[in-house]
Amino acid sequence: MKKILLLGLSLFSAYSFSQDIGIYVENTTVNIAGTETVVVVEDPNNWEGHLTLDVVNEGSTDLNVTIRRVRMDFVAGTEDAICWGPDPLTGTCYSKEDVSSSDDWSTSLESLGSQETGWLALYYYANDNRGDATYRYYVIDENDNKLDSVDVRWDSQSVGTEEASIPEISVYPNPAQNVLNVKFDNNGEDYGLRIVDILGNVVFDEATITSGKIDISNLNSGVYFYSLTHRGEAVKTDRLVVKK
Fold first, then answer.
1. Do 174 and 17 form a contact (C-beta atoms < 8 A)?
2. pLDDT higher than 50, residue 170
3. Which burial class, exposed, middle or buried, applies to 238 when counting CB atoms under 10 A from its CB (0-12, 13-18, 19+)?
4. Of these four, 63, 96, 113, 162, which has the most CB atoms within 10 Å of its CB?
5. On the CB side of 93, how many CA atoms lie within 13 Å of its CA?
6. d(C-alpha 183, C-alpha 201), whole Å
7. Whole-structure pTM over 0.85, yes or no?
C-alpha cells in the first residue's frame, strides 16, 4: 500500500529579504523563510503534496500582502493550488485550474496587520508524474516589494511498487454542517474514513464504512482533512470545511 506524504526541512539558507516577515511551518516556531523545504509525495498517483504555513508580519507597520508563486523547476503534467488569507475560514482558495496555467502566478492582496498571522496552504498534484519540482513562494507587498520567500521542492521521485485499486469517492456537501454524505464503490474491498483537524488530531475514525450518511454534528466549525483508508493506510485525501 502506498503511503501519503512525508515532510522534510532542508535548513540551508537560500537568501534573505526583510526581517519583518516570518514564514513558519503551521503551529510551530520553525521559521523557514529563505530556506528550501522538501515535501515528499511517496505515491504520486491520485495524491497531493500539502504544506500549510503561517506568514507572520513581525514588523510595526500594517501590510497588504500577495503570494507570488514562481516555478523554478517544473514536472510536466503536474498541477498546484494555493489558499491565502487571514485564516482557513475567511481565506481565498485558488483551484489548480486557476493556478496551474502559469509559471508565474499571484494571489490577490490580503491585509496583514502588525504582528498578525496569515494562513498559507500549498497543494501539489503529481498526477502520476515522477520527478522533483521546485516552486518559490514570494511574500510581496502592495508596492511589489519582495518581503521574503520560501522554496518548496515537491518530490515524487520515489514511489512504491504495490498498486492499490482506489475507488472514486464523493464527499458532500462541502462546506458541511452536521451530516456528511459519502458515496463510493468499494470494489469488493473494505474502506474506512478518517477525519483530522488542521493540527493533525483525529476527530473521526471508522475502520469500515459504506456509502451513506456520516454524523459529524460533534465537529466544530473549521478546516479538516478527510482520508479514505484501506488496511489502515490513507489512499485518498482532501480538504473539508465545516460551518455551523
1. no
2. yes
3. middle
4. 63
5. 16
6. 24
7. no
What span, in angstroms and rounded, lies between the C-alpha atoms of 188 and 162?
18
Pairwise CA distance, residues 171 & 152, whole Å: 29
List, for residues 184-220, the tens digit of each pLDDT value: 877 777 888 889 887 778 899 998 888 889 999 999 9
Rounded CA gap, 41 and 2, in Å? 10
Query: What Cα–Cα distance (Å) separates residue 18 from each residue in 22, 65, 135, 139, 185?
Result: 9, 13, 20, 10, 52
What tens digit of pLDDT does each residue of 45-70 get?
Answer: 666 788 999 999 999 999 999 999 99
- Between the ranges 7-11, 29-33, 63-67, 159-163, where is the mean pLDDT highest? 63-67
Name which of 25, 95, 112 is nearest 61 in CA terms.
Answer: 112
Helix (H) or strand (E) run with residue 97 in it: helix 96-99
CATH number (domain holding residue 218): 2.60.40.10
C-alpha cell at 234: 490513507
Task: Give the residue from 155, 189, 219 where a domain finishes.
Answer: 155
- 72 in any annotated domain: yes
Please indicate, yes or no, if residue 23 is contained in any of the structural domains. yes
> Is residue 163 one of the residues assigned to a domain?
no
| Contact of 21 with 49, CB cutoff 8 Å | no
Angle in degrees, CA 106, 108, 110, rounded to 5:
125
Residue 233 has pLDDT above 80, yes or no: no
Burial degree of 12 (CB within 10 A; 0-12, 13-18, 19+): exposed
Distance CA 90, CA 212 (A): 30
